[in-house]
Fold this sequence. Notes:
about 120 residues; alpha+beta; 6-stranded mixed β-sheet; globular
Amino acid sequence: MSITRVNPTKRFSDAVIHNGTIHFVEVANDETQSFRGQVSQCLAQMDLTLAFAGSDKDHLLQVLIYVKNLSDVPILNELWEVWLNEGHAPSRACVQANMVLDSYLIEFVVTAAVKEH
Length: 117
């Protein structure tokens, strides 16, 4: 059984693909953006990472979302519900967390199935 590590470093890989499942984390590439901007960036980045692995948002299995401020969750939910296709919601948890960098306002931990060919 092979494990594919995408852009591995000493500390992390951009994604790990194993047994038909992709695991990855997204934070905004431009953390100077507002919360809305960071969420939008992360969702777009998720689309790209999923496509790279041969998957898409309809194949999400679980998403764990860390937010800096719980007061921002309504904005997250608004953007999430527009982005996600009806009937394809993954299991999801959203928790408040201190971030590694003060400028990070949100972080997504994603697990998705790779599409069968």
